[in-house]
Amino acid sequence: MKNNKKFNVAYWLVTVVLLAVGAVGLYWRLTQGHRMANYGQLIVWGLWVALYIYFIGLSAGAFLISSLVYAFGVERFRPIARLALFTALISLLAALLNIWFDLGHMERFYEVFSRPNFLSMMAWMVWLYTAYSILLLFELWFELRTDLVRWSEKAGLSGKVCRILAFGSKDTSTKSRARDTRTVKILGSIGVPLAIMFHGGVGALFGVISARPAWHSGLFPLLFLVSALVSGGGLLLAIYAFLAPDRGSEAHTALVADLGKLVLGLTLLDVLFTFSEYSIALYGAIPGDVGPLLKTMTGPFWYVFWIGQIGLGMIVPIVLLAWKRTNRNPNWVGLAGFSIVVAFVGVRLNIVIPPLSVPELQGLVEAVPSARMSTFYVPSTMEWFLAMGIVGLALTLYALGYSLLPVKPNKETSHG
Q1: Is 351 exposed, middle or buried (0-12, 13-18, 19+ CB in 10 A)?
Q2: In a domain, 415, yes or no
Q3: What span, in angstroms and rounded, lies between the C-alpha atoms of 195 and 205?
Q4: Domain span at residue 303?
Q5: From 151, 174, 276, 376, which residue has the greatest number of CB atoms within 10 Å?
Q6: Tens digit of pLDDT for each residue in 298-339?
Q7: pTM as predicted
């Protein structure tokens, strides 16, 4: 990571703690199954599903921003294009781990391929994820190939890793690089509709559930796409603002400011979509639509909405990215991106939990005397621990890749 000993020590200390806590959560999950989870007969999806759509959004958003360069030729963002692809890959892994641990029988995940249901929205999502994963790996490899060959000559661990990942490739000629560039452009162009389909499909997965009026909306696929771009853009903004090797240079300051403008526009669009979703439902006053929204805004976790989603996710970044005194300062702009990344955990929780906390039948909770028949949900220690472990694993892989591979915005890379 950045040549800052204090930062490195703090980073790895946090990461090791997260991994240690995650190991405990993994042991509980493997030995106790779902018995230690706090969801029940009404709230059947919890923290892991929320984090799944959170990380999927980060991945899709980062990938689509990389496509501005690879598919549409927006050279202004070339320095962060590789970083965006790498970020998309690590975020995708974190997302898939969260949803895998949420499965009742994790060992049966392959059955979506061996016994497919072609009418299942969830099955289509899995197939799209598979195609996206393969495309992402190939696109990143072809983008890095020339530098992997060059870095394989280095001494130490970085050279060894690059030699392995080069898969025997030796050609670093201009002609081979041009061929790689054409391949990356083709893959990036294919990836744009694929990323739109798979993350819009996540929104469609919720939108087609007619039994939950709060989800049953044609707006959901679009809302998921916009929020993915906001969260993915915010993550890239924070990473580049604080960790870029050329931090402090004029080029770094200018690119952070331009990326901040992009994220500002996407955030304003997200405000519009969120306002449309809430205002129309509240104006219509249909109980099935209004109940979950009132739970979100005025329920026991009102602060997740007002302080997290609205405050940290909208007001803080808009002010920091629009105000002339802060929108060209990498520290403030990076803080705006970090604020978005933190806030979107709450955004995803608000999508998943409140609609499930309103019973489909009035009086259902009182009629069934069971502790699992509850509209109140707080993630259990096991759920938190395992989720923290997945975050720790993502941080570990990101730091290793950032340090050992030619993914950072640097003059050493081919497009640097």
Answers
A1: buried
A2: no
A3: 15
A4: 5-404
A5: 151
A6: 989 999 999 999 999 999 999 999 999 898 999 999 999 999
A7: 0.91
